[in-house]
Amino acid sequence: VPSPTDGVDAGDLDELRAWLTGTGTLDIAEELSRWQAAEKALAIRLLPRDRALAVFEALDASDQQEVLEGLQSDRVRHLVEHMDPDDRARLLDEVPAKVAHRLLSQLSPHERGLTNELLGYPPESAGRVMSPEYVNLRQSMTVADALAKVRRAGRDAETIYTLPVTDDQRRLVGVVSLRQLVLSPPDVRVEHLMVTDELHHVHVTDDQEDAARLIQEADLLALPVLDSEERLVGVITVDDAMEVMEAEYTEDLAGIGASMPLSRPYMAASVAELARTRALWLLVLIIAAGLTVNVLQFFEETLETVVTLALFIPLLMGTGGNSGSQAATVVIRAMAVGELRFADLPRVAWREARVGLMLGAMLAVAGFLPVTLIFDAEIGLVISLTIVTICFWATLAGSALPMVAKRAGVDPAVVSAPLITTFVDATGLIIYFMIARTVLGL
Amino acid sequence: VPSPTDGVDAGDLDELRAWLTGTGTLDIAEELSRWQAAEKALAIRLLPRDRALAVFEALDASDQQEVLEGLQSDRVRHLVEHMDPDDRARLLDEVPAKVAHRLLSQLSPHERGLTNELLGYPPESAGRVMSPEYVNLRQSMTVADALAKVRRAGRDAETIYTLPVTDDQRRLVGVVSLRQLVLSPPDVRVEHLMVTDELHHVHVTDDQEDAARLIQEADLLALPVLDSEERLVGVITVDDAMEVMEAEYTEDLAGIGASMPLSRPYMAASVAELARTRALWLLVLIIAAGLTVNVLQFFEETLETVVTLALFIPLLMGTGGNSGSQAATVVIRAMAVGELRFADLPRVAWREARVGLMLGAMLAVAGFLPVTLIFDAEIGLVISLTIVTICFWATLAGSALPMVAKRAGVDPAVVSAPLITTFVDATGLIIYFMIARTVLGL
Question: Which of B279, B296, B330 minimises the CB distance to A359?
Fold first, then answer.
């Protein structure tokens, strides 16, 4: 979507008003996420109440917080009162505890109750993203009864397309879709339409990500959520699932790039925030890289004798890092989409070991001649042997470490690419100098 | 989902049959994706027709192809005939042209027509993933008329929850949801219910990914697709959008890991296939890394004089690579979710330059003392100055290169992390030795 807004000066009220009138909700929200806090609030103030709410709902929680800070309390109350309970819970998670408390106290008792319930579930749990406003049916209802209940109770529900069927104890006994109701004769009973086999559901404390993946794999529009006593307490809708998966991707990618995920859009984050998300990893990795200095110190004599060996250090480290990252990213992805389990480790290691040997052999053969021509055959042999060994070793480590990390309860994406590269650097240097000493007879 | 199937031997028919009966559709599909082609087909043969179809539809296109190869032609015909047209188009894309031709010729004329239409659109386009089976309404209809039409025509449609409203020329004039129809009195006219402002839609030749992102951002269940004459030709549903985004993410991650995406699940890909997706990049990168050998050769004399300088090469290269990857992955992600445009390049570069300087200064201060204690103050100064400069430079390059790549029409994820690392390695060495020569007075 090309935005027509480049050059809009949020300080010029007439221009801003004209732009807001002529621009779609999503485009306004996208543009706002790149503005300063005061400008965001100004734009929301200038919009009619209904549109302001629509734009507000399309913003990230961190942007919403900034908007609220710049508004008067009656507008704040209006916006927060009319949010969906799950979106509101996400926002209250973001703001300081004092602000959250104040916002909660201004809600109507009904909305406050719904929000407090969601905030009681652990972070990252299915309970946090579910909607407590759903329409449930009884199996004894006819289609006509069911449609009447949907008309009566459906206005506030987040979705009426997936209708859980419950018993007297609010236990889930089936699910029926609005599609089935609409396409069936009015006197058919819900119990004859509802799905009871393979009844997909999650529990409030389950991981959000597992719920999102289930929604995707089973092509669901909404997934029932049960409490510890197997009672229905809410539904997770497909739009929430998409958001959970987006956030998860962003987190994985940040981990692979050795930083922590940003809690707000890139352009809205300050330089200090950007630096903060990266500083810790960079420090950890440079300390770990201290190991490479030690290894090289140990081989300093060899290095003094044949300085030529130093010339290949970046190339060999780079190749090891690349092979390791290739294996790690593929394995991380296969685990994320559920294609790999820990029990597969021996098979994966055996596959990757062969892949590493194949790739290493290819590079070694390709590299032998040029190195021999420019330097000599002995150096050519050292480099070729080292490439094969490092590729083999890096591919093996790159595939196994993420699996071991996940098994140990650590996010594989965070532990992997950068740490593997540093680990392969240090061990690769040992391999290099051992081979060099042997071949060159030092 | 823990699978109870480890150790199932597909050769033992009774055990397999019992397992198939006791296992859910999705779990069967997940397990099948890890089996050999012949075993997959065997499992599908043992299932009753309806369940076989459900499992078949839950498989990836590459798995579906393997299943079809192992089945007799009447079962093949049954499965392919009953697939959704968009899933079928995806499958026919995957199989060899000859097989696709044969499968198409066995379809009923109606299904063949639908599929041929989809296959006429360019790869990766919105037209390829849309469903041509939708229910459209007229604005003059009442709610009662509209519901009657939904009942009449809805059985074959992929969704009846989003109902496009069209005029005599099949041009889109609005969209109404089944929710609105069900919640409204029967005599209200569709024109009074339908959304006409901010009417989200895409064109058949638009990028699938843009369509998927629009569905996510606007929380849609289905998105109307128009042809070049602005006529409605289909809808893209939210489940297809999720698949498109998954595939896109897998592709990005493969690029960041310097390999090409696998066309099938990890465990189903052969070792040779795994090696093939990685060989080209590894070769390109090692050739590019040849540059580092040249740079070091140029400074060989300096290196011979102060061998100590060689000890820090892996640490300095690693730190440059890490800073560059951090910046690159954050920028790639921000571009992917539409937060950044090319016009932002100067602002991004200015931000990242400051981030790089801050991080570099932190590491330089932290590193000066240990290096000075173990070696001497001059070496300490060289290393500290190099770290600041390399962090600054790597962060700048890491953020700018993906943006330039995207502008040039190259996938930023593919061009970035690994290439940046190699580029930063070579330039970083020049920086290192220039600083060393100056400080040490060589």
Answer: B279
